[in-house]
Amino acid sequence: MGAKIEIKKQEVKGGIYDSIIIGAGPAGLNAALYLRRYGSTCMILTNPEQPSQVDITPFVDNYIGIQDVTGAELTKMMAEHAKKFDVEIKYEKVGDIKKENDNFIVVSEKDSYKAKTVVIATGAKHRNAEVKGESEFLGKGVSYCATCDGFFFKDKKVAVIGGGDSALTSAIFLKELGCDVTLIHRRSEFRAAEVYVEKAKQIGVKFKLERTVFEIAGGKMVEKIILDNWEEFDVSGVFVAIGEIPAVEIAKKAGVKVTESGFIVTDKGQMTNVPGIFAAGDVCDNPLKQIITACADGAVAAFSIKKWLGAKK
Ligand code: NDP
Q1: Quick check: is 148 catalytic?
Q2: CB neighbours of 90 closer than 8 A, spacing ≥ 6?
């Protein structure tokens, strides 16, 4: 049993939050939790159309202390934990962050909100494979989310494209759901953790390595996949899981510096080049993109905000 801590309601003085967090994935939720525990006020705005990458992860077995959990279950637990500390999560897409004197105005599609600091924890979106038929068959057999759409392909043949953790966890999930799964990867080495590769092999996922997809073809729905060596095979579904692109549109508009590949540059305290704007999680230029590192970024950002606001008083 943990110690009983009195949880106070937020008192947002003058309608100005200490921080507004954009994004309700592990980075944003943990930033909110830490801010509240430091006695700071905050709220989260999140795009209802963009689930966090964790939300679409079939299972997570590398968040220490928590076993046998789906990505969606884990973020739900995290959101409940943050809400216990009176964190409000509003499902509104943010379009702009503007500076007004010492504060920021965060403009969503519904309203605008004032804060002394902003945490950008907008995560990343799936990357398209850019192959023939991919966009044409989107929702007609092509999917980027095995946990969302896998059920429709129970007992059917599917292909998963990619060689990272997303592709391997999706392949395992689909196989365990009862699909006949072929994983297509452009190299013979995997980025995915060895445990996932081993598990996939053990449960009978088929592999086509050193192959790329040339075309996804069919009639009204996906019917087959054509590889770069002209090999064809029948599938009803194609799951594309080839990595992510950082969601940095709002950050760039606000003058936040990004790397050549588009990830936000921060200092050790997660502050960006724009004083008062912090960033956390997969949207940042960090070497490891995991739930645990996203959470850690959020905690560090909250700690830095507390220090930064304290120094300004
Ligand atoms: P990754 O960047 O880790 O892997 C992407 C994979 O797709 C690579 O194997 C890459 O090939 C391949 N690829 C990239 N572009 C193309 C293309 N155009 N055509 C064909 N193949 C392509 O992305 P993931 O989405 O797998 O993972 C993102 C992050 O999320 C990682 O940090 C991962 O560890 C984490 N994650 C963790 C999970 C867990 O632990 N439960 C679950 C899911 C994700 P190549 O290797 O040749 O570059």
Answers
A1: yes
A2: 43, 44, 45, 46, 108, 110
